[in-house]
Amino acid sequence: MNISAISNIKLEGREFYVKRDDLIDPYLAGNKYRKLYKLLKTPPNKLNKIISYGGTQSNAMLAIAAMCKNKGWKFDYYTKPQSRTQKTLSIGNYYHSIKMGMNHIEVDEILYKNYIASLFLNTNDGEFVVHQGGAVSEAREGIEVLADEIRDSNIDARSIATPSGTGTTALFLALALKEFRVYTTPCIGDVAYLREQMQALHEIPENLIILEPKKKYHFAKPYKEFLEIYKKLLTTGVEFDLLYAPAMWEALLSQTKEKVLYVHSGGVSGNENMLTRYRKRGFNLVERV
Ligand SMILES: *Cc1c(COP(=O)(O)O)cnc(C)c1O
Questions:
Q1: 148 & 241 share domain
Q2: CATH number, domain at 209?
Q3: Alpha carbon of 15 to ligand 1 centroid (Å)
Q4: pLDDT by residue (tens digit) across 241-267?
Q5: How confident is the model at residue 285 (pLDDT cuts 50, 70, 90)?
Q6: What's the CA gap between 152 and 146, in Å, rounded?
Q7: Cα–chain-centroid distance for residue 70?
Q8: Which among 34, 169, 210 is the best mutation to test ligand 1's pocket, defined by most ligand atoms within 8 Å of the CB?
Q9: What's the pTM value of the predicted model, to 2 decimals?
Q10: Which of 73, 116, 169, 236 could in theory staple to 68 by disulfide, Cβ–Cβ 3.0 to 4.6 A?
């Protein structure tokens, strides 16, 4: 399959490498491509339906929708009830996923937790349930492929960085690349929550370093400083996502000094939607390139 390129960028007088996993595919990109790698290699006739759940801005949802379209698989996606506005937007991950054939099922808030648990108990032959955000041990295979690409590139950097939601990507990357230092930072919840999520998959190795964010950010909330970093990053010629990348870059710029390879985790397709939300809050300072 595709080997992604490595770009050189300059930011605040420092040089960074960027592993361009964002360029793999418009919808099926970033770490979601890596995490779904094993499923992507599955012959179409082995499955007929993927089931998953989570938020309607999710990059995992979009990636699964694109995969299912390519494979001819059905895709059932469960969420809590959504607002009408969200459902009628003609931009963003939700819109594109529906267009690619995703079957969206809303579950009442009170029933949600038990309903999701029941999905794992009632699978039929030919169905596969993907945990929210793709946090599964099956993700390891694809991330090991990414690790091999990094090792084979022979770059003159010994540090890697990638932002965390569930921590699956950073954890498996650190396990596969013992000779590198792997930095990450929590973009959902705090450091303690991230450690807990990782430990559910595997013991955390010593070469994985979790950088503490400057302050407590709430996931997917617009922050002026995130938009500033996003803009600064745009000047390098590479677009990064607005949900995860800003916190990682902020931590990298303030807490590290050495040359780092940033693994682009994708998610750029969700920026349109986020920029609309920034504009609604009066942050009109962005001109898209
Ligand atoms: C899903 C996602 C992450 C988080 O990945 P985890 O493996 O859950 O830590 C980071 N960045 C982007 C753009 C994502 O879509």
A1: yes
A2: 3.40.50.1100
A3: 23
A4: 999 999 999 999 999 999 999 999 999
A5: low
A6: 10
A7: 20
A8: 169
A9: 0.94
A10: 73
